[in-house]
């Protein structure tokens, strides 16, 4: 398959379009006195609630539509709420009208693009949906690039593991590089042993056609250097510390970090940002066979640090350790890792927030601003130095799964930080999945953190 399977798009500027007028709930009482179809709207019970839609009838059919943007409280509680109305519009071209702030208009446009996502390659295809004529006053190219990157991430994560093993992820990564004129290389199978021993150890039990690998994309010749590292565990059985059945149900998404950095890379390259981009993805299937990694094995990493394996189900941090060590052999202005790493992060902040770690105040400020601009909420968790001793088992330099019982996301982040020699370092512990249908985010794969990082690098470096 070639990803993304479908592309977000705007309607042609010259298309015959109907108007969708968006109204805030607090503005509706006054507007209801002057709207040309006020009688119809009142009779229908329209109150401009978030996502509420009314088609406006006329003698020749539909004249247009009005949609509610809800109250200020409703807008704070639900991102992309307008997507509910957009999804119910008849097919065809539409324009976006209404007295909206610049941020409200950008959120509405991004919601429109994201709600058009469908993952239907394994079923009958649904209807095409309504298309938006790109409105004036927004950065349409940036919003479209963000939606394209999100579509790519969602497609990669949604694809079942039978069709998205390490080799297929490599093919998608190589295709992304080729589309943007980037260089690409991969080290596969036993060739990993000299330089990436932990990647090899985690992935060696998989079938030969699903052999472990580490991949690298490079793009751009000038500007600040940005390195992205994404966890690419294409399926996680837990290894010999096997997961229970319900624990495997979502494990096709364990390459969500890789999918997210690929989506982010697409955004950066599509927008032509003046940066030097490097993307590293270690990819494995954590399988079970006679040569599988065992509990209490001790691995020597690329960095030279030894790691006692106390749980073969804590494999993501092992492959990221080698990848981060490789990343740090070359200086960059910002190093970012993204991974579906711990259940503890979900317990802490739930599925809708992307928790992150950094000790750099400038990066934190830029990321928080980028999250607001990209409608991509994030939340900072601490690199708490007092827990460093927890990840030191005594028999080796590091423990991949300390039996501490607390702060599982924090201790995992501290483990990864041991493999980084440079600052600033930014780490995301992602979920990459929406457990239910939400506006512009259907149940299944969802991007997290990428739009926030895009805004952060643009804010930090003025690119």
UniProtKB/TrEMBL annotation:
Full protein name: Leucyl aminopeptidase family protein
Residue stretches making up the M17 aminopeptidase N-terminal domain: 36-135
Gene Ontology terms for molecular function: manganese ion binding; metalloaminopeptidase activity
UniProt keyword Nucleotide-binding, yes or no: no
Start and end residues of each Cytosol aminopeptidase domain: 152-453
Family the entry assigns: Belongs to the peptidase M17 family.
A Pfam match: Peptidase_M17_N_1
Signal peptide (residue range): none
Cited SUPFAM superfamilies: Zn-dependent exopeptidases
InterPro entries: Leucine_aapep/pepB (IPR011356), Macro_dom-like (IPR043472), Peptidase_M17_C (IPR000819), Peptidase_M17_N_1 (IPR048816)
Keyword Manganese in record: yes
Record keywords: Aminopeptidase, Hydrolase, Manganese, Protease
Organism superkingdom: Bacteria
CDD domains per the UniProt record, alphabetical: Peptidase_M17
Gene Ontology annotations of biological process type: proteolysis
GO CC list: cytoplasm
